[in-house]
Amino acid sequence: MEIQEQLPQAPVENRLNFKGDGGSLFGIYLINFLLIFVTLGIYYPWARARMLKYIYGETSFYGSRLSFHGTGREMFVGFIKAIVLFGIFYSIIIYLFLSMSEAQQNPDPENGTPIWMYFLGIYSLLILFMATIVPLAIHGALKYRLAKTSWRGIRLGYRGDRGRLYVIFIRDLLLSLITLGVYRAWFEVNLKRYIMSQVRFGDVEFRFKGDGLDLFMIHFKGIILSFLTLGIYSFWYATDIYNFNVNNIRVVQKDREFPLRSTATVSDIFELLVINWLMVTFTFGIATPWAVARQLKFYLGNALFDTGFDPNLIVQTEADYNDALAEDLSDMFDLGIV
Amino acid sequence: MLKASFFDGISSQQREVVIVFKGDTLSFEYVDIFGTSIHLHWKNGEIIHEKHSHGTHRKISFKSNELVFLELYDQDFSELDAWLKDQEVDNRKYALFMSRGLLVTFLVLILGFFPLLYFVGLPLMADYASENMPVEYEQKMGNQMSASLLASMDEVKVKSTYADSFVSCFPDKFRIPVKIHVVKSDILNAYALPGGHIFVNTRILEACKTKEEFAALLGHEIGHVQLRHSTKAIMRSVIGNILLSVILSDFNAMAGVAAEQANKLKDLSYSRGVERSADAYSSELLRRSQLDLRGLADLFVLFEKEEKETPVSVPEFLSTHPLTKERIRTARRNATLNLGNIRPNPLMENYFRKLKSEQTKFLPGVGTYKTF
Predict the structure, then answer these.
(1) What are residue B73's DSSP bridge partners?
(2) Disulfide-capable partner of B224 in A71, A98, B59, B192 (CB 3.0 to 4.6 Å)?
(3) Separation CA A306–CA A258 (nearest Å)
(4) Would the CB atoms of A98 and B144 count as touching at under 8 Å?
(5) Is this model's pTM higher than 0.80 or not?
(6) Lowest mean pLDDT: which of A113-117, B189-193, B254-258?
(7) Do B144 and A102 touch (CB under 8 A)?
(8) So what's the ipTM on this one?
(9) Dihedrals phi, psi of A192, to nearest 5 degrees
(10) Residue B225, min C-alpha distance to chain A (Å)
């Protein structure tokens, strides 16, 4: 045993390897929940920072851990701004709903606003809110989160332009609305393509080579077959989506492009989803942290970096950035940016 | 001596170094990109030490630039732990005491603050909000709530009209105008919504044998309206719900809060104090109307009797109105004091007869209404 441990030949860790365990996550969840409760929610940003610090610190890549440098204090300011923004939005929506129900009860056919006007108002307000806040949230969250992430002392970063993101987002949102959702696949791909091209990892860059039509076919096939097979095909569907997202990423280092390669199989995804579901259901949610740990391990760990990629050659290029408004905005939308 | 990987914050190049501890300083040596050998000495106070994976993986970073750090793994860390502990020993006890003391103070403050806010601050906020709410707004809220309640109920409109006329016989001009809704129900109950809407179940109307009893009942509910009891209760519930959803960060729930309220109204419960002040309002109103105050006492007796006879259909009124011997005694005492102040009121009597009369079932607009 002693001799084996001293052998330096560890396998190359060419993927993000989550080494955390459900027990530790459970402890963090529990303490966070209690503190959020007794502080009437004010602790939330600190809870988030704590959770991210743990997850990043337990994620290993070529033998070194990731680091999250954000603090609760930075995110607190963003948290307050996000609450105010959402507060205003919800007040308007609630006000419209109340006036609508009043108009319904006391219809005034001559001077009153017709009901469909209220529906139109609420609907367009929702879309307007989506179109203005979501790009802001994506942009800000990426900028803050990546600037606060480092590996071997090398910062990640997001160099995207907010205006450009707005143009892509609003253009594709409109196209998706007009085509009744058919364009959604292209929307997703265009957004990923732009965002990915603006991500930096020191002097390493990324590209997304996915094609809208391919994604559309995956969605199309997935939805139809899942429906026909009463949901059984959804495991193949989920695998296709994961593989599409991973296999289309290119890592660019010193003018050389390396692909990421997904190792996820249908049986892996089946096992992950079914066991997680059983765990969470039969413990009435108590096992959620263990399920989250399994999920992180799976989603991070199944994207292999090419052997041509050299983890020792990355050079620092990105500056620090402290505005955390969108970190919390994106959280409220549940955008799921890891 | 410990083995570590050093990262200089400029490139990702991994440099194997050996750490030596001496006094309060940790030292190591590395070769930079120009081939120069560099010695670094970090004092204990200048570093941040982090443990990962249950302490099997360590990170020692330089405080003023976290991107410059040492990474240590898979070895015996007892030397490092001893060094860290050794350096801390002077201020450790004090720090521990301070941190524990601070934590306890903080927890006590928070734990005290939370119930204080919920049980004292919340009612105060709600009362302030309802007292300063314009009557028009209260009426608007009441109109909506009563409309949504009435949608699922069978209102006897003719009786409601007579009941309104009955109310107009009171000499008072009410600050918040009152509108009575007589609704079909076998439950012995009457309740007040904000903004002057009072719901009277047919069952309770049937149970009232004299106009004084009915006047006492309405007086009690009008008391709830004028003293804004239901508005206060709703405000408490709304503010409580909003507070809870903020705590639980459940932003979607906030939208639902407002809508939920209307249905809960029937089950609103008031404290004894609130009931007593509504009783007092009722007997004052009866006194000013020169009616026999025994009506209120009779009403209470009626409920008491109903409870004994048919325990199944009554409890709703009873559960929200704590009927006590004391309440009956107070009503009787007030009635005795008022005996010299009674004048007949034929108009009120007339409306009460009409309310009780079976004729209403033949009037248009009453539909299939049939007396009990």
Answers:
(1) B57
(2) B192
(3) 6
(4) yes
(5) no
(6) B254-258
(7) yes
(8) 0.77
(9) -60, -40
(10) 22
